[in-house]
Amino acid sequence: MSEPVTGITTPIRMEYRYTPGRTTSDFLKAMKGGRMEGRRCPSCRKVYFPARGGCSMCGREFAETVPIKETGTLATFAVVNVNFANRVIDLPYVTAEVVFDGADTTTMVLLRGVSPEEVRMGMRVKAHWIPKEEWDYSLANIDYVEPIDEPDAEYDSYKDLV
Amino acid sequence: MSDVLSAPHVMEFPYTRSTGPVVGAFLTGLRDQKVLAYHSSDGTVVCPPPEYDAHTVAPVEAAKLIEVASEGVVTSWSWNPAPRDGNPFDRPFAWALVKLDGADTSMLHALDAERGAIETGMRVRIRWAAERVGFINDIACFEPAGG
Amino acid sequence: MRDVAIVSFAQHSQRREDTRNEVEMLIPVIREALEPIGLTSQDMGFTVSGSTDYLAGQAFAFVQALDAVGPWPPISESHVEMDGAFALYEAWVRLQSGDIDTALVYSFGKSSPGDVARVLALQLEPYLLGPLWPDAVSLAALQARALLDSGKATEKDLARVVSRSRKNAQANPYAQLKGDIDEAALLDEPLYADPLRKHDVPPVSDGAAVLILAAGDRARELSSNPVWIRGIDHRIDIQSPGSRDLTVSPSTTLAAKKAGVPKDPDIAELHAPFSSQELILIEALGLDETRTSINPSGGALAANAVMVAGLQRFGEAFNRINKGDARNAVVHATSGPCLQQNLVAVLEGSN
Question: Does residue C86 have a pLDDT over 60?
Answer without folding.
Answer: yes
